Sequence to fold (305 residues):
Amino acid sequence: MNIRHLVESQQFTVPLLMELFERTRAMEKIVARGGTRDYERSIMGTLFYRPSTRTRFSFESAMHRLGGRVLSTEHANEFSSEIEGEKLEDTIRIIGHYCDVIVLRHHEDGGARRAAAVSSVPVINAGDGTGGQHPTQALLDLYTIYRECRTLDGLSVALIGALDQGRTARSLAYLLGKFDRTKLYFIAPEEMQIKPDILDYLDKHGVSYECSATAGDILSHADVVYQTRIDRARLQKSDIDLTPYNIDGAVLSRMKDDAIIMHPLPRSVEIDHAVDDDPRAAYFRQTQNGLYVRMALLTMLLESE
Ligand code: CP
Fold:
């Protein structure tokens, strides 16, 4: 393991991803047999300046199942000394004296990088800003694809939603771009299309992609449909019809039998609840995988200490 802090998904190489996924499989077995006490001397601090259900709970559950202990604050913008004007850098230096690893969700793009620059213990980016990254979500997304599609090469992946501010889609695009013959489709209203930094990266690495305002027949041949939310309040033309971006029974009927539908969650209206019972709906399996992947990641980072 040669990553000390996890700030962005492109830090991972393919061999390192495979090492993480091998550990993740082992974690599935450890959880099935009731967890381990192997990390009982370790303490994880979770510092969340923005709301979270899945990321914070799964990290905390991961640490508990490894036998470790957890110090936690949600609403860190209210309940940490930021409210007294303390800078993130000072907070991180101090928490580093009390924990062996810090999981940070910060409200500014680049918050995790600032934290990592001063931290004496590993920092894990649990989502930064609106245009930043959410690398651990991308890792669990990739693991889900690997488990469900049984390969990471030659996949067609459609990413839908407000992609400009989609931390998860941004982080996942970087990871998918590492595999052979990947084809990415970015489907979003024009003003919410994926940002040029991702496209530059894909161009540089010879990854094939298309940007489109409509799904057209893309979803009928995609192996993975990665759905995210679109916040209507952000649209300049509020009369724009968002239903073509939603997944319902009609879309399902056009999709391949072995395709999967993913969503980082939480969802709003963009996936009809009637879709949940279809075996292709992978989003709840995806959240479960979050626990295993985060356990594996914690062990990797704690061992590198
Ligand atoms: N997917 C995700 O980051 O969910 P939370 O905001 O609930 O952590």
Observations:
- The chain has eleven helices and nine strands.
- The pocket of phosphoric acid mono(formamide)ester is lined by residues 52-55, 127, 134, 137, 264-265 (CB under 6 Å).
